[in-house]
Amino acid sequence: MTRWNWDDGNQTNVRRRKPAEGGSSPPSDPPDTYGAGRGIKLSVLDTVLSVWQHAATMNACESQIPLRCAASKPAARQRVVSCHLPGHQMLSIVPALVCLLVLTANADVSKEATWAVTSGGNGHTYRVVAKSSLISWDSANAAAAAAGGYLATITSAAENAFVFSLIDDPAYWTQSINDHGPWIGGYQPTGSSEPDGGWRWVTRTGVTAPEAFSFTNWESGEPNNQTATVNGVTYNADRIGFFHTGTGRAATWSDEYNLTGSPLNQWTISYVIEFSGTPPILTNPRRLTDGSFQLAFTNRAGAFFEVLATTNLASPLSNWTLLGSVTELSSGQFQFTDSQATNLFRRFYRVRSP
């Protein structure tokens, strides 16, 4: 899911707060600060999009209106790129349109790749994220959902090999006696027969039932349902992460403790997000003469999108207003006009594909 912010006010900058230590929850949304210079502002606020995706968005904007960009100096846990577009007669405003793209607001390490249909893939994009400290499966699952995706659900040997090619990097693994890799979306509900009963995948975005748990790639001897007792409570190893016995990385899995810390999970620092659609590429955001706001973007032909909006970015997704579906004007060219924006000082948008 991609979030865009339109602001007909004095906003000059957006910053991300540093996430809580250990990555126990996804980063919170940025507070808005206001300064001099009235105009319209559009921001890409999904901080987990990769740098190259943001660059693609900027290039798309550049193809419509001359664009001048200045990247800030790298700073600890923050990098911001500000893009100033000169005034344009189509906007019917004198001040410049400002497009601010917030890339990453923390020290996470991430990369992604798309498993192309032309290569026998499913067209999905996979992103591996490494935190600066341990992360539980629950927190990784929440972070994946906040990014608009879900923990990867691997249903074939080919998909498993593709994901492993992305994560086969020491940045995403912790070497102890064995080597522990990223979380994926497999879990075992409480009460399942041990050690290999009841395993299932998380339900991916836009569907009502999980994919069949028909393919597995357990390491030899896994799953083994290790247990640990903490303060009288017994915990089972009931979440799936990549794992290799001994030294070195492999495309095999293990059942792991969800929660982190001794004597539970003391090694998992990363997770793999799967996106079932290609992120929209913003091309021509503008305010129309009647005061309504219009955005356009490119994506694969035939895709379905809908737009949600709120005036408070801190609102939970359940409180966002569904404005309607996006019109595909021509093959892969999408457009949406918000006529309600005429009465609002500020509004935030989410574009999602079920």
Map the helices and strands.
Layout: E1 2-7, E2 11-14, E3 32-34, E4 41-44, H1 51-62, E5 68-71, E6 79-85, E7 97-104, E8 109-114, E9 125-130, H2 137-146, E10 150-151, H3 157-167, E11 174-175, E12 179-187, E13 200-201, E14 227-230, E15 233-244, E16 253-257, E17 270-275, E18 281-282, E19 286-287, E20 293-298, E21 306-310, E22 321-325, E23 327-330, E24 333-338, E25 346-352
Parallel strand pairs: 4-7
Antiparallel strand pairs: 1-4, 1-25, 2-3, 5-6, 6-7, 8-9, 9-17, 10-17, 11-12, 12-13, 12-15, 14-15, 15-16, 18-20, 19-20, 20-24, 21-22, 21-25, 23-24
Textual characterization of the structure:
It is a single chain. With 354 residues, the chain is mainly β. It folds into 2 domains: 2-107 and 278-352, no CATH class; 124-275, Mannose-Binding Protein A, Chain A (Roll), CATH 3.10.100. 9% of the residues lie in helices and 36% in strands. An 8-stranded mixed β-sheet has the order 5-6-7-4-1-25-21-22, covered by helices on one side. Strands 11, 12, 13, 14, 15 and 16 form a 6-stranded antiparallel β-sheet that branches. Strands 18, 19, 20, 23 and 24 form a 5-stranded antiparallel β-sheet that branches. The protein starts with a strand and ends with a strand.
